[in-house]
Amino acid sequence: MTGAVHLPIVKTLHWPDEAATARFALALAAQPQVRLAYIELQGDLGAGKTTLVRHLLRALGVQGRIKSPTYAVVEPYELHDLNIWHFDFYRFSDPREWIEAGFRDIFASPGLKLAEWPENVAGCVPKADLVVQLGVTEDESRQVTLTAHTAVGAALLSGLGITSEHNAP
Predict the structure, then answer these.
(1) What is the number of helices (H) and of strands (E) in the chain?
(2) What is the spatial distance between Cα 100 and Cα 60, in angstroms, rounded to a whole number?
(3) Cα 142 to chain center, whole Å?
(4) Contact in structure between 27 and 152 (CB atoms under 8 Å)
(5) Residue 110 DSSP code
(6) Nearest alpha carbon to residue 144 among 129, 125, 159, 162
(7) What is the pLDDT of residues 63-91, one digit of tens each?
(8) From CA 29, how far away is CA 34, in angstroms rounded?
(9) Own/partner long-range contacts of 126-129 (Cβ < 8 Å, ≥24 apart)
(10) How far apart are CA 135 and CA 45, in angstroms?
């Protein structure tokens, strides 16, 4: 069968500096599918998860202060044609909080969802369309692994020009 998508799709990138992170975010923001995506950001403290989110939100047109939702758990952003929710589940420990906070309703609604520390809500969140795993190398650059788990995630990678023949936008 020609054109079949076999998931998951895993690609590795190298970002030598923050400018590379910004270029990736700009390219990702240009993909129409990002407006429907659930993207998980994984990596240790200081790996660049929030930095990537900030660049992505700016590229999508968010104005004003973009803050980390570490204490609030979620920061919502409303654009004229797009709702965005940035979650940080670092301090999340009880799955009952998920239900009480109404996050199930947010994930059921249209818009872009970005989640840092998604492993702390495993079993509550749906399968991510795209997982971005960030790791810091010895020279402070970033090793980035992108994993598409759904057709939306595969479309994002394809739209970025990340196929079996290409490794960077």
Answers:
(1) 5, 7
(2) 30
(3) 15
(4) no
(5) S
(6) 162
(7) 988 888 877 889 999 998 999 999 999 88
(8) 7
(9) 126/38, 127/38, 128/38, 128/39, 128/40, 128/153, 129/33, 129/36, 129/37, 129/38, 129/39, 129/153, 129/156
(10) 10
Phi/psi zone of residue 132: left (φ > 0), alpha (ψ -120 to 50 degrees), beta? Answer: beta
Give the per-residue pLDDT at 165. 39
**Tokens 């999340």 correspond to what residue?**
92
Nearest to 146 by CA among 50, 53, 42: 42
Terminal-to-terminal C-alpha distance of the chain: 27
DSSP letters, 126-163, are PPPSEEEEEEE-TTS-EEEEEEE-SHHHHHHHHHTT-S
- Residue 57 contacts by C-beta under 8 Å, 6 or more apart in sequence? 66, 77, 84, 86
Residue 13 in tokens: 């990138």
CB of 17 closer than 8 Å to CB of 141: yes
pLDDT bin (cut points 50, 70, 90) of residue 97 is confident
